[in-house]
Design a protein that fits this description.
The chain is an alpha+beta fold. The chain is built from four helices and five strands. It has a single domain, classed as 3-Layer(aba) Sandwich (Aminopeptidase), CATH 3.40.630.30.
Length: 144
């Protein structure tokens, strides 16, 4: 069966939370996640997507396409919270969902698709670079 990307719905919140546990210990209660998912989906700027395989949620990502005054007014896209179920990694699903996200960003007119990754995630860096992502600067953060 072919994997399928679709927008996450409220009933997907717990499955998305389960997948996101791979990124770190911070968790939301399911009811709060459902509300936040609705806010993101209705923002007009971002979408949470899920990757389904044989009726099962096996991946997720958030794609933000943001307005921009630079670059001739073309928006830019940010790929965030990308996860594939651990037991299915290495089977092309991450490649599939990343290509899908890039295609959607392109369809919405974005001039670039950016993502950031923790310095310690060297395997993830190699993965994204193999997909054509380039290290083009540094990413800085301010904890709030």
């Amino acid at each position: 069966m072919e994997p399928k990307v679709r927008e996450a719905a409220a009933q997907d919140a717990e499955g998305v939370l389960e997948l996101l546990r791979a990124l770190g210990p911070e968790e939301l209660p399911p009811e709060e996640a459902r509300g936040l998912l609705q806010r993101i989906q209705s923002s007009g700027l971002g979408r949470v997507y899920v990757l389904e395989l044989e009726g099962r949620l096996v991946g997720t990502f958030t794609l933000w396409v943001l307005p921009n005054l630079g670059h001739g007014g073309r928006p830019f896209a940010v790929l965030e919270s990308v996860v594939v179920a651990e037991e299915l990694r290495g089977q092309g699903l991450g490649r599939f969902l990343t290509a899908w996200a890039a295609g959607e960003a392109r369809r919405q007119g974005a001039y670039k698709l950016a993502l950031s990754s923790s310095l310690s995630r060297e395997a993830a860096h190699r993965f994204y670079q193999a997909l054509g992502f380039e290290v083009y600067g540094i990413s800085l953060k301010l904890e709030l």
